[in-house]
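Budget justification note: compute hours in this period were largely spent on complex prediction jobs such as the one shown. Inputs:
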Amino acid sequence: MISLDQVSKVYRTKTIETTALNNINLEVPKGEFLSIMGPSGCGKSTLLNIIGLLDEPSHGQVTIAGQQVQKYASKTTSRFRNEKLGFIFQSFHLIPDLRVIDNVELPLLYRNVSSKERRRLSEEALESVGLKNRMSHFPNQLSGGQKQRVAIARAIVGKPQIILADEPTGNLDSVMGNDVMDILLDLNKKGETTIVMVTHDENMARKTNRLVRLYDGSQIK
Amino acid sequence: MIKNYLILAWRVLGRKKFFTFISLFGISFTLGILMVIVSFLQTELGTDKPFTNRNRMVTFGTIEMKDMVPDTSILVDSMLVDGTMKYDTTKSIGETSRSTTISSLGGRFLVNNFTDLKYAENQTFYLPGVSYNAYVNNSKIVLDVYYTDANYWEIFDFEFLEGQAFDLSMFDRAEPVVVITDQLAEKYFGESSQIVGRELKMDGKNHKVIGLIKKPLSSMINGDVFAPTTLLPDYLGPVDQYTGGFRSYFLARSKADVKKLQDEIENKENEIPIDLVQDYNKLFLKDKTGTMFQGFARNLVPFNEPKKAGRALSLILIGFISLFVLLPTLNLINLNVSRIMERSSEIGVRKAFGASQGNILGQFIFENVILTIIGGIIGLVLATILIYFINSANLLEFLKLTVNYKFFVYSFLVVLLFGVISGFLPAFRMSKIHIVNALKSNKL
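Corresponding output:
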């Protein structure tokens, strides 16, 4: 489902060159739940951003669902992200001015979906994370765990094949963290969604199918 | 999508009340003033009746006559050469003006010299600004009378509410008929319908009302009664009278002929004989000719030459309006940059979930357009109140501003332009922001 071939990422300024990722080769088959671990600054998020087409690699090739995506023009990449990928962020990134239901339907706004259908799909996604009764609330009226569940609903509402989660439990206490993790595991099992998760938490990582460790931009074998 | 944007726009405006207030104040105030200007220009320079032919109209107002006499001047230059004073004398023979008159035009002068212009399809010579007193129910009414020819009604297409204008045969027979405005009818007869056929007493004589017109809003025509010039005794004046109180308008055959017609009128300067006139021996059509806009400009800017005046007024107007729009636009762009910057994280999320650059651009411009439309509506209300005030206090003599359909469309276009310009630049900048950087700002 995801294939990275000798992917490197180098950040250059006038005076300094920083290698964030160094020759990463990674294969993630369909339906796998992969976690990426490593110390801060080792390139985990950069790797996730490259898989999520949020950033371009300096070298190497990224193939997702059989397509070499970094060659896509910007509009095509946007559509590809919209249809194939879902994102969950550590700090939730919900839009504070929108109600929960409006936040969840955000990915569908960029598809040709009627408002009625958007509403139905969003309610369904919220129901699957147990928050249908909170759909008219605003994000600031929710707890951290609830916010992350809304973010999950937003990530899955468009039924993407891949979910990319950047430390989804990082800002949550262990109880809420476990709740969120259970939802992700459930999604992976029942929905056969491929999930790549960056985490600092060893316990969370152990619940996934496979763990990849990074150190200073390189993969530890 | 639109509904979603609308909700978001509404909530964003509500979230930053002070920012919204400042923006709305700027927009509505600017637009309010701008709308009044638009209304003024529309009334003065638009092609509403009776100025449907405005684009083909050329006007020409004054002549200058001089008595030129030979003039000899002697210039003596002195210098010291080897201790001796030497003198160098220059004698120049030229002309100087002993007497000058600048005046508006005489009827006969116009009829004799300006009725056969090649590029003019039609022309009218008329005498404005004659006034008589009339007494109705023991109160005085001042009748502002225009004495016109029959062509006048072909060049200016008034909106007739009743009856019609006098034609050439009535003009030639000097029939005591008049066309009056609805405003005068209201004052004189106490009503503004079924006026045709009634008698209006003017200059001690009865005149039959044969037409009722809607009073033009423009200051260019400020008469209330229009009568044939032939009613005036010896209306054209003596043969040698080149000056008088007449005005002239010419209608070019086509818009392209306007320039040619202007040149043709200017060239008359050298063709018109001056030997008929006592005391003067040279004639200048010095302030030359001009279009209606140029004529209007000459009243406002210190240039006598119509083309210069027209150009100067255009530049002033363009500069003024640009500045007027530019300042609040820059201010809005500035406010918008900081407002949109604060939402960079939202932009990151939207892009991550598939929004294209165009979607982001569209969203922020949409929000801005909503803001400016709200500002525009407030501005429109403001302008309506202002115009009402200007009209009721009679601040602009002879000119009535109006809030009409065209005015609203112009204003709305200005509002839209405003919204798009002030939203586009910051939105464009932010739409290009790199998703990863946008998400890092973490301001949600």
